[in-house]
Amino acid sequence: MMAASKPRKAHSNKTLPKLRIHDPGATHIPHRLGGGIVKEYAEIELASGKLWRYSPVYINPAINSRDNGRVLGYDNAHGYPHRHLMGKITLEQTMSWPEVRDRFRREWREIAKQFVEGDW
After folding, report:
1. What pTM was computed for the model?
2. Considering the domain boundaries, does residue 7 fall inside one?
3. In what order do the strands lie in the sheet with 82-85?
4. Which residues are paired to 94 by β-bridges?
């Protein structure tokens, strides 16, 4: 018995935009600074500067054991911008990549500092 073949997708003549990818890889945070891993990823359209996709994340299972250790993250998956904090999701306003990145960096550093100081 032969397996049914999948229908082929029609090829579009539409040209995909050229994107700048920001993906510096994972940064391992020393334990004395709070520990964990920080990852940043963004796709930005070169011509317009439009932010297509982004997902900065701070992972530290010592702070949060739920949500695969994700303490803080921002992304625009599912068609809307949102923030993850300790397993809770909140809607966010649309921001540029520098705004998302700067806010994320401020917040994860403050969380890590509070964790080291025993305030978290």
Report:
1. 0.84
2. no
3. 27-28, 37-39, 57-59, 70-75, 82-85, 88-91
4. none
94 inside domain:
yes
Torsion of CA 89, 94, 98, 104, to 10 degrees: -10
Name the token pair of 90. Answer: 């909140």
**Residues 6+ positions from 118 with CB-CB distance below 8 Å:** none
Q: Please, which pLDDT band fits residue 6 given cuts at 50, 70 and 90?
A: low
- The model's pLDDT over 68-87, given as tens digits with 9 standing for 90+, comes to 999 999 999 989 999 999 99
- For the record, the structure tokens of 106 come out as 């401020």
Q: Give the tokens for residue 91.
A: 């809607």
Nearest to 103 by CA among 92, 113, 114: 92
Residue whose structure tokens are 């303490």: 71
Q: Which domain covers residue 60, as residue numbers?
A: 19-116
- Asked whether residue 11 is domain-assigned, the answer is no
Quote the number of domains for the chain.
1
Write the burial class of residue 103 (CB in 10 Å: 0-12 exposed, 13-18 middle, 19+ buried): middle
